[in-house]
Structure prediction request, 460 residues.
Amino acid sequence: MKNIRSWSIIVCFAGILLIQPDFSYTEDVTKKEAQELAQKISQKMGKVQGEEKWKAEEYYELGLSYYKDNMFLKAFREFEKANRIEPGNKKVKSYLNKAKDKVEEEAGRHFSDGIKLYKQKRFDESMLEFEKVPVESSKYQDAQGYIKKVDSDKESEQIKAQEKEAKEKREAEEKDRMELLTRGKEAYKRGDYKEAQEVFAALSSRYPQDEQIQEWLRLSQSNLERLEQKESVKKEKEKTKEESELTILRKEAHEKAMMLDVERKYLPPERGEAGAIVTPETREEDAKTRQIKFMRDKLSEIEVPEVNFNNVDIREVIRTLAKMTGVNIFIDEVELGRLAQGMPPTAAPAPSAVVPDRPFPGGLQGPVEEPVVLPPPTGAGSLNVTIKTYSKMPLLNLLEYTLNTTGLAYRIEPSYIFISTPGKIKVTEQVTISYKLKYGVTKRRLVAPMTPEALLGTTE
Prediction:
């Protein structure tokens, strides 16, 4: 359209030059040249008009395609472009009016739906409907105003919703606070101070500035401590009572055991292997012997890895071996202390039997032998040893070698090894032998009754 107007201005100017013969031209411009120029301008103008007409036809065809696909807004815009190029084209004008009517119809429907949704405060959906109303609609220009109004009302509603949510949250917190407070008071009234203290402690962490809650918490803790102290005293009394009862029961059991032991001593002796008399003492001795044998067998299986002791105290060597093997080894510190100071070991009495003042039934009375005292080992005073092994070695062998170098000895017990001087080790426990005496046996005989004749010695 702009090209047509510009070329029209040029043609008009050329026509003015041609229709004014008396006009004086410049020397280098002739009338013939002016006619040639006007002819060129006319040809150019015809060419431009043809191009514009072709574009108008293209817009029309595109708009018609949109119109058939019910895309009326796009069709209206294409028809409007064609109408601007060829405003006198009736066909274009007809379809332009039809498309506009359809656009207004759609705009009216979107506008009406937007108003309904807006009244229902469905602002997001209402905004979508108002935005579908095209700016080309002349009847529903208010849609743009409603878009701004929807934005404003939507923001207001959001603020109201936030305020409402905050209010509901405060009310819920207050309701929860009152429920917990009531629960804590009820627990306090029925004497459940532990539950009351837990409830008020939870409330105190949430409402540290609430003086009422702090006071209830203080009262609950005070009563709970008092109750716990009372329960502690009660448990202590019960424990003392149980211990006293247990002591009485133990005493009674001990007394019964002693009575049974006394009664057992008056029972006829049992016969063991090879006719040996089995007594409680010999039975306990046999059990201990079996335990010691089991311990010795177990120790014989234990091996000690390579060791290297250079001038180390014997006590430190024994402790190291005990840690390495896990075997309980006890040292007679008194005797080792005397040996370390160069003093002789304590003299231990030799085992001896208890000899009664009177001879045993059927036995002979003779002189009582004095106990034999073993002499202390010589060369005591140094308890340091130097030992180095190059391979594994049985514990008992290593222990025996180590102790021999310092003049000590060991004894195997059911659960440990005891180390001391040979004098103490060789002295066995004192053995008490008891005998059951035979008392007189009453003899009975049958005596037949005698007649007077028998007593007088007469016969028939």
